[in-house]
Amino acid sequence: MDYSKVTLDELKKGYRYSKDNNAYICNYCGQHFEVGQIFSIGNNLYTAEHAISKHIQMVHGGNLSQLISSDTKYNTLTQNQKDLITLFASGMSDKEMAKKLGVTEATIRRQRFTFREKAKQAKYYLAIYEQVFEKQAHSENAIIPIHNNAIYVDDRYLITEQERQHILETSFSSLTPLVLKSFSPKEKKKVVILTKIAEQFEKGKIYNEKEVNQILQPIFDDYMSLRRYLIMYGFMERTQDGSKYWLTE
C-alpha cells in the first residue's frame, strides 16, 4: 500500500473508495467491493461499505490489529509499545494492566500520557507538512513516493518527478506498449524502471511463473533479470518454490 496516497481517515478505516472503480478497496489485500452490489457474508446481506468493514474484521483480524502488527517501515512502534497499545485498546483498567504487566498504575498512566503527547506532535508536524508540501505534490521538484515494501531505502529513492520523467523517456523506446531499451546498473534508474514495469501487474492477483514471464518477455529480452529484480527490490513477492507471484501492497 502506498501510504502517500491514502488519507488518515482511510488508514483508520482500513479501506478507501475509488471513484474510477466505483468501489471500496481493502488496504491490505486490494479486494474490491463494488458500490451497488449486495454481498453475502455468513447468513447476512451487506452493502459494499458494510461488507468491506466485515471483510477487514473477519479476514484481517480488524484494522487496528493490522496497523499495530504491520511490518511497514513506517511502523516505528517497539514491541513493548505495540503490546501496551493492544492492552489500552482492550478496555482494561489501569489497575488491571499494571497487574498483568507487573508494573505500577503510575507507569501505565505515564505511558498513556506519552502516547498522547506523541500524537499531538505528529498532528502538529502533519499540519505543517501538508501546508508546505501538498501544494508541491505535482511539481517537477516533488520527490516521488517510495513503494511500501522497498527493501533498500536510501538515496536511490531521492528521485524528483522531473528525474523520473527523464529516466522513463531515455530508458524505454516505447511506453505503450512498454519496451525497455536497456536495464541500467544505476540505482535511481533501476527504481524508476522497476516501478513502471510493476504497473503492468494487477494488484491482488496471483500469477504463476509462466504468466509473469509472458508479461515481462515483450518488455525486455532478459526478462528473467527483471523478474529477479522485482523480487529483490520489494515490488513483488513469491512463494518459496517460485510457483506463485504477486504484487506487494
Keywords:
single chain, about 250 residues, alpha+beta, three-stranded antiparallel sheet, two-stranded antiparallel sheet, 10 helices, 9 strands, about 10% strand, globular
How many extended strands?
9
Q: Fraction of residues in helices?
A: 40-55%
Estimate the strand proportion: 5-15%
What is the alpha-carbon Rg in Å?
Answer: 22 Å
Supply the number of helical segments.
10
If strands are numbered along the chain, what order do they take across the biggest sheet? 1-2-3
Q: Helices and strands: which structural class? A: alpha+beta
Distance between termini?
4 Å
Question: Could you tell me the mean pLDDT?
Answer: 89
Descriptive overview:
The protein has helices at 8-13, 48-60, 63-69, 79-90, 94-101, 105-133, 161-171, 187-198, 209-216, 223-232; strands at residues 15-18, 23-26, 32-34, 39-41, 44-46, 172-175, 178-180, 236-238, 245-247. With 249 residues, it is an alpha+beta fold. Strands 1-2-3 form a 3-stranded antiparallel β-sheet. It has a two-stranded antiparallel sheet with strand order 4-5. Helix 5 (94-101) packs across helix 6 (105-133) and helix 7 crosses helix 8 (187-198). The longest helix has 29 residues, at 105-133. It is globular and about 65 Å long. The model has no long low-confidence stretch (mean pLDDT 89).
How would you summarize this macromolecular structure in one to three sentences?
This protein is of the alpha+beta class.
Layout of helices and strands, plus pairs?
Blueprint: H1 8-13, E1 15-18, E2 23-26, E3 32-34, E4 39-41, E5 44-46, H2 48-60, H3 63-69, H4 79-90, H5 94-101, H6 105-133, H7 161-171, E6 172-175, E7 178-180, H8 187-198, H9 209-216, H10 223-232, E8 236-238, E9 245-247
Antiparallel strand pairs: 1-2, 2-3, 4-5, 6-7, 8-9
Helix pairs in contact: 5-6, 7-8
